[in-house]
Amino acid sequence: MSRKTAEPKAKKESAKKPPAKKRDIGADGGKIFILWGNDEFLINKKVKTFSDSVSDFREFNFNEVSDISDGLTTALEAPFGSLNRVVIVKQTIKADDIDLFERYLPIPQTSTLVIVCDSKPDERTKVVKLLKTQGEIIGYEIIPSWKEDDIRRHILKVAQHLEVKISSDAIDALMAVTGSDTYRIVSELEKLFIYKNGGLIEKADVMEMLPDISGNIFKCISAIAAGEKQKALILIDALFQANEHPLKLHAAMASTIRTWLFVKELMGKTDNTSIATEAGIGNPQRVYFLSQEVKNIKLEWIVKCLIGLSDLEFKLKRGGGELDFKVFISEMSQ
Question: Which of 49, 107, 174, 201 could join 30 via S-S bond, C-beta 3.0 to 4.6 A?
């Protein structure tokens, strides 16, 4: 009797399975980065650094998905013929995502998971606390306009990253134009770097690049005449960024070139007052300075430029724009 009752007990005990081992979330695994904020330029730049870190077979090992579940399952896969895999997920983290992360973490050391969010994740939630143990949370917010000291430091930091030398007065002048817009700051600093041939950027240089149509058009034409194509393109680009109408820019440029034509043809043949009358110049004293401007410019180039402007006007009146202007500048700068 006792033997019969003992046998089933023994069978029952032998049938017991050991408890399933839980995934050790604290174990060494791949890194998880959460990028959040409204500065898209800096976020995209950071994403590019992750993309560039993929050593081989990018079409297989750099993955962009729109769902956290897909991102986690992709991150669990071994990289194809490479040392690493990068997975980018563009989705806001929710509190109930905790179940997903507890189920799948840790991801392999060969994987990096990057989650891009519009807003700052709530660090009080269980899911964010968990993710902080697996990686980093990095914010990229546009600095409010009233935090001028922060914007100055931001511009200086960007300049140092680009290896651009800029004075403190120039930073203030640039801040007045760009605010804290990182994309615009980078764009303007790169143009100023070219404009100064890598030299120190001063306040006067920034002021030259401001969208002053009359001043910048004159500088642009002078650069074209001197064969400084890059400088001319930078100046015209600044005017287009200020939303100046192409036909307005054309009219200002054509007016300057026509004045140069009159002065070039008549200088040395008659007095300054007569030249001023012919060219429609209000102050005859300006003729001296204009004659200095055109002294080293060939008459043939001025005529060629006017013909080119006539062709440009034809294109602009039929829907042309910035590209046509840049083609004109490139052709005239040769």
Answer: 107
Domain span at residue 179 reads 148-209
Residues 134 and 152 in one domain: no
Residue located via tokens 């300057």: 256
Residue 134 CB partners (closer than 8 Å, separation 6+): 25, 29, 31, 32, 105, 106
Domain total in the chain: 3
**Residue-wise pLDDT tens digits, 158-197:** 999 999 999 988 898 888 777 788 888 998 899 899 989 9
49, 126: one domain = yes
